[in-house]
Design brief:
It contains ten helices and ten strands. The chain is an alpha+beta fold and about 290 residues long. The N and C termini lie far apart (about 55 Å). Bound molecules: the ligand Nc1nc2c(c(=O)[nH]1)N[C@H]1C(S)=C(S)[C@@H](COP(=O)(O)O)O[C@H]1N2 and molybdenum atom.
C-alpha cells in the first residue's frame, strides 16, 4: 500500500522554547514580592482560592493575602455555597492556570479537537461593529529602532508562521472554555520588532472597545515580557480554524492561556513597550494588579 502523503499537521508538537528570563526574574524577587506573587497567583487561578475550605485557606495563604481574597470574595459576591458548587468544574482549569503561574517556564496543558467546548463572547461592554476592520492597523512603539511601526493584518500573516494550539481560556467570572486558536507567536513578533533596551513590559490596547451603551471605552492590559515570550502566548488571528470573528477579537487578539481571560485582550490596535508597568483596565477599576499577574 502506498504511503500516505504527509499533510501539514497543525497540532504537531513544537519544542517549547526556554524562557530563562522568567526564572531569573523569579529568583531575584524578594521574599515579600514572592508572598505577594503567591497571593496574586492564588487569586488569579479563578476559583482556586474560593473553592478552598476556609481552614485550608488559613493554612495555605500568607496572612496578607486573606484580606485581599476576602475583599475579592465580597466584590464578586462569592459565598461558601457557591464555592462548593463550582468545586468540580473548577479543578481542571485551575490546574491549567496554576501550573503555569507557579512555574512560568512550563507550558499549560493542550487539548485535542474533541475537547473543544463552546466559547462565549465576553466583551464586557457592547461588541464593536465590524466597520473598524477595513481601516484596522496595529501600531507598535517603544521599539529598539526608535520608530513606530504601523502594520496591517496582511503584513502580519505574510511575515510570521501560523501556530495552532488548543488551550483553555479561563475567565475570573467562573467559566472556562477549551478553544482552538491560531496566530503568530508573540515571541517571534518580539524577535522581529525588538523592544528598546530596558523594556520589561508591553502595554496592549484596543481603541475600538465599547462600553455597555456603545460609547468608546478603550481596553488595555499590561503584560510582562517573559509572559509575552512564553511559547504558548499568541497574537491570535484565528479561532476554530477560521479568521477571528468580531466577537472573539478580529483581526488580532492576545491569547495567553497561562493568564486569566481578562488579560487576553481582543481587537488589539496598539502595543507599546516600556520599562515601567503600564496601566491595566481592570486594575484601574479596583481589582488588585496581582489578580491577573
Ligand atoms: N477588548 C476587549 N478584550 C477582552 C475583553 C473585553 O471586554 N474587551 N474581555 C476579556 C475577558 S474578561 C475575557 S474572559 C476574554 C473572553 O474572550 P472571548 O470573548 O473570546 O471568549 O476576553 C478578554 N478580552
Ligand atoms: Mo473574563
Amino acid at each position: 500500500m502506498a504511503k500516505r502523503k504527509s499533510r501539514p499537521r497543525p497540532f504537531a508538537e513544537t519544542p517549547p522554547m526556554p524562557v530563562p528570563i522568567a526564572e531569573r526574574d523569579l529568583a531575584r524577587r524578594t521574599r515579600r514580592d514572592f508572598l505577594l506573587f503567591g497571593a496574586g497567583a492564588a487569586a488569579a487561578v479563578a476559583g482556586f482560592w474560593w473553592i478552598l475550605p476556609d481552614g485550608a485557606r488559613e493554612t495555605w495563604l500568607p496572612s496578607g493575602a486573606h484580606h485581599a481574597l476576602d475583599t475579592m470574595n465580597a466584590r464578586l459576591g462569592l459565598t461558601n455555597d457557591r464555592r462548593e458548587k463550582f468545586l468540580d468544574r473548577s479543578l481542571t482549569f485551575d490546574d491549567d492556570v496554576a501550573e503555569a503561574l507557579y512555574s512560568p517556564t512550563r507550558t499549560v496543558r493542550t487539548y485535542r479537537r474533541g475537547d473543544i467546548t463552546p466559547l462565549r463572547n465576553n466583551y464586557n461592554g457592547a461588541t464593536p461593529k465590524s466597520d473598524y476592520l477595513p481601516g484596522w492597523t496595529l501600531t507598535v512603539s517603544g521599539l529598539a529602532s526608535g520608530k513606530t511601526e504601523t502594520l496591517s493584518i496582511g503584513d502580519l500573516l505574510a511575515r510570521f508562521p501560523r501556530r495552532d494550539q488548543i488551550t483553555r481560556l479561563v475567565c475570573v467570572e467562573g467559566w472556562s472554555a477549551v478553544a482552538w486558536w491560531g496566530g503568530l507567536r508573540f515571541a517571534e513578533f518580539l524577535a522581529a520588532f525588538p523592544p528598546a533596551p530596558g523594556a520589561k513590559w508591553a502595554g496592549i490596547k484596543s481603541s475600538v472597545n465599547l462600553d455597555g451603551s456603545g460609547g468608546s471605552d478603550p481596553y488595555y492590559v499590561s503584560i510582562d515580557l517573559p509572559t509575552a515570550r512564553h511559547p504558548q502566548t499568541l497574537l491570535a488571528t484565528h479561532w476554530d480554524g477560521r479568521p477571528l470573528s468580531v466577537e472573539h477579537g478580529a483581526p488580532l487578539r492576545l491569547l495567553a492561556p497561562m493568564k486569566l481571560g481578562l488579560k487576553n485582550i481582543k481587537a488589539i490596535t496598539a502595543i507599546d513597550y516600556g520599562a515601567d508597568e503600564p496601566q491595566d483596565y481592570w486594575a484601574k477599576r479596583g481589582y488588585s494588579k496581582y489578580d491577573g499577574l
